[in-house]
C-alpha cells in the first residue's frame, strides 16, 4: 500500500534492484565468459541511487564501476567500503583533474586518462609514489568529446615509455551512434579502434556501452560498460522484452473535484472541458521530474484504468481527467505515472527527449524505496 | 576562484541570498505597508535550497512561508527551529492529507484547506484538541486544480458554522495567467474572488503570486505570495531591471582538444566542424540540469568572451567550440553557464520551457554555495 510508505511525501519511486541485477546479467550473457561486464553508476546511478545500485550489483558479482567525476567516486567508495565491498574497482570517466591526484590514490580510484595532460599527471603521481598506479587509456575514435585525439595517439605510439610504470588496465573508446545498429559510424569506429589497438599489444580493451553490447561480439572485447539497459530502458528498442522494468512511480491524489463543461484547467487555461468532469489533482509536478511537456500527452494508471493528464504540468501537481474512472479505484488514493501503456520510452518521447534524461532528472522530492524482486 | 570551491565536483551553483532578499523587498515595495509579503519556498526553494532561502528571508523580516506538502514543511520547520526562528508560519499548499493531521499540529504547520474533505478533517482535529487551529481557505476562481469548487463554496456559504472553531487566517485563490498582464482572465478571477470574499467578511485575503503582485494593487489584498521573482526570474518580463540575478552556475573545463575540419562532435555526430577547431569539454550535462535541448543553442562565458555549445548535450558533459577564445582565458579552467548574454530566461526559451522548470530541475550533483551580497 503505497500511501503508507509515502509518508508525508506526495510521490514515491520504487526501484527494483533485482531487476537491475537481471538486466546486468542479461547484458553479461551477450558476451563470452572472458568479457567482464562493468556497470555505469554515474549521475547517481542514472538518478536511481548509485550506492544502492552498486551494492546490489556487487553482491551479484559485478566488480567494475564507472562514475563521471572524483566527487561521485569518493561517495561511492566510502559507501562500498562501509558495506564490506573493498575490492571493487571504481573508475572516473572524467579522469584526474589538476587537484584530484592525491584523492584518486587515497580512495583507490582508477582514472580514465583522456589526454596527455592527464597521463603525465598520473605518471608523475605514480613515480612519486614508486607505485604502479592503475589507469584506463581513453582514445577518441569519433566522439570528439573525451579521449586522446589523433595527434596525441600518434605521439603516444612513438613515446610508449610515457606509459612505463603505469598499470594500464584497458584501452577504451566510446561509440557515437551505437543505438542505431546500421549506422556506418559503428563499423568505422570499430575499425579505427582495432587499428590503434594493434599498437598496444596485450592491453585489454573496452568499447561497448549498452547499445554497443547488443551490436555484435566484435564490439565486446574484454569489458563492456552498460548503463541505461541496467535501468530498464532499451537504447536501441531491440531487447525490450529482455529487459526488466526497474522503476515504479506512484503519486498521491491530493484532491478530487467536479468541474463544469466550459471550465478551463490549469495555467494558461489551455485545457477546455467539453463535458461535466471529475478532475483529480495529483501530487507530482515538474519539480519532481515529471517533465513539463507531458501536459496534455501523458496518461496515468488508476487501478486497471488509464486516465489522461490534462492542462499544463504545474511545479508540484498535475491534473487528470478521471470522469470515466470507477470511483472505487479512486479510493486507493494514488496513481501510477509509469505503466504498461505508458512506459519510460513513451514518456521520453512525449517529453521530446530520451529515457536517460527522464531518469537522471528525477527530482529529490519523490521518496525512493528499494525492493529486491 | 571557483575551481577551489568546486572540490572534486565539476560544476557549482552560487546562490546569492542577498539578491533573494532584495527581490523579496522589491515585491514587498509594490504593495502597501498593510500587505504582508510571504515567500514561496516549495520544491526546495525552487531548487535553490529552501532552508537557506527561508532562513535568509526570515532574517530580513519575512514571516510567512509556503511549501507544497507536509514533508517539505517538517524539514523546513525543523531547520528554522534549530536556527531560532520559532515564530514563523509555514503553510502546506496541498493541505492536510488523510494521514497528515497529527504532524500538521505537532510541527505547527498551517494547512491550506482545498476542499470540504480537508476542511472537515481539520475541523475535527481542532475540536478534538479544543484548540483553534490555523488554516487558509483556498477557493478556486478558474484554475480547476486546487481549492473549493463552486458547489462547495455555495455549501460553505450556507454552512458557515463549518468554520467555527478554526482560525481562518486568509481566504486565498490562485491566478491562472497573471504573467500575461492583459489576459482578461485576470480581471475575471479578481471579480469572482471579490464576489466570494463578500461572504467571508473580516477574513484577510490573498490572491497574487509574483506576476500578480506586479499587476496592480487590486490584486494585493492582505498578503502576496511571490515565488519565481524571489529567485531572480521575471514571470512577466516587466521588471527585469528591478530583479537581481540570484544564480551563478560555473563548470569545469575537463578537457581541451584539437579537432580537424570534417570531424563530427558528440552523440549522433550531429555537429560537423567546418574548420580546424579547438573543443573544450565541460563537466556539466543534462544529469546536472543542463537541459538536453540546449545543445547547439546555448553559449557559455569564458573570461570576457562567449563560446557556443556544439553537438548534443551528454549526461555528464557538453562540448564547446573555443577556437576563437583567447587561450589565456581558458587557463582559468572554468566557464559560466549563465551570463549576461545568456540568462535564465534565454536558457528557458532554448529549452522550450520556463525558468521555473530550469531552476527546480537543477540536479543534486552541482555543489551549492551561498553568498550574501
Would you write up a description of this structure?
The structure is a homodimer of 373-residue chains. Chain A has 373 residues and is α/β, with parallel strands linked by helices. Chain A folds into 2 domains: 31-231, TIM Barrel; 247-371, Lyase, Ornithine Decarboxylase, Chain A, domain 1, CATH 2.40.37.10. Helix content of chain A is 30%, strand content 22%. Chain A contains 13 helices and 19 strands. In chain A, the strands form 4 sheets. In chain A, strands 1, 11, 14, 15, 16, 17, 18 and 19 form an 8-stranded mixed sheet that branches. In chain A, strands 3-4-5-6-7-8-9 form a 7-stranded parallel sheet. In chain A, a hairpin with a 2-residue loop joins strand 15 and strand 16. In chain A, helix 2 (17-30) packs across helix 4 (50-59) and helix 4 (50-59) crosses helix 5. The longest helix of chain A has 14 residues, at 17-30. The first copy, chain A, is elongated and about 80 Å long. In chain A, 56% of the residues are buried. The mean pLDDT of chain A is 96. The interface between A and B is large, with 84 and 83 residues.
Amino acid at each position: 500500500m503505497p500511501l503508507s510508505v509515502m509518508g508525508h511525501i506526495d510521490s514515491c519511486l520504487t526501484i527494483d534492484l533485482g531487476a537491475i541485477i537481471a538486466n546486468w546479467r542479461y547484458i553479461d550473457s551477450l558476451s563470452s565468459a572472458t568479457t567482464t561486464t562493468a556497470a555505469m553508476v554515474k549521475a547517481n546511478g542514472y538518478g536511481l541511487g548509485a550506492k544502492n545500485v552498486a551494492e546490489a550489483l556487487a553482491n551479484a558479482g559485478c566488480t567494475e564501476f564507472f562514475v563521471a567525476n572524483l566527487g561521485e567516486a569518493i561517495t561511492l567508495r566510502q559507501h562500498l567500503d562501509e558495506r564490506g565491498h573493498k575490492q571493487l574497482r571504481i573508475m572516473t570517466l572524467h579522469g584526474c583533474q589538476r587537484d584530484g591526484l592525491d584523492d584518486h590514490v587515497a580512495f583507490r580510484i582508477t582514472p580514465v586518462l583522456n589526454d596527455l595532460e592527464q597521463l603525465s599527471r598520473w605518471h608523475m603521481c605514480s613515480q612519486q609514489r614508486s607505485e604502479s598506479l592503475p589507469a584506463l587509456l581513453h582514445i577518441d575514435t569519433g566522439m570528439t568529446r573525451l579521449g586522446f585525439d589523433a595527434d596525441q595517439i600518434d605521439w603516444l605510439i612513438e613515446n610508449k615509455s610515457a606509459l612505463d610504470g603505469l598499470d594500464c588496465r584497458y584501452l577504451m573508446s566510446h561509440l557515437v551512434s551505437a543505438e542505431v545498429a546500421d549506422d556506418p559510424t559503428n563499423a568505422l569506429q570499430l575499425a579505427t579502434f582495432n587499428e590503434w589497438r594493434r599498437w598496444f599489444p596485450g592491453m585489454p580493451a573496452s568499447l561497448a556501452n549498452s547499445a554497443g553490447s547488443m551490436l555484435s561480439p566484435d564490439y565486446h572485447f574484454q569489458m563492456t560498460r552498460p548503463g541505461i539497459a541496467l535501468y530498464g530502458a532499451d537504447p536501441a528498442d531491440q531487447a525490450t522484452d529482455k529487459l526488466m522494468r526497474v522503476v515504479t512511480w506512484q503519486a498521491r491524489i491530493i484532491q478530487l473535484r467536479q468541474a463544469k463543461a466550459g471550465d478551463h484547467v490549469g495555467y494558461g487555461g489551455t485545457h477546455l472541458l467539453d463535458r461535466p468532469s471529475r478532475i483529480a489533482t495529483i501530487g507530482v509536478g515538474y519539480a519532481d521530474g515529471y517533465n513539463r511537456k507531458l501536459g496534455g500527452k501523458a496518461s496515468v494508471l488508476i487501478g486497471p484504468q488509464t486516465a489522461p493528464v490534462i492542462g499544463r504540468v504545474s511545479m508540484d501537481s498535475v491534473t487528470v481527467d478521471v470522469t470515466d474512472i470507477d470511483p472505487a479505484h479512486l479510493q486507493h488514493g494514488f496513481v501510477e505515472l509509469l505503466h504498461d501503456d505508458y512506459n519510460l520510452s513513451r514518456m521520453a518521447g512525449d517529453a521530446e527527449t530520451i529515457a536517460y534524461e527522464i531518469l537522471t532528472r528525477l527530482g529529490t522530492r519523490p521518496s525512493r524505496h528499494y525492493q529486491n524482486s
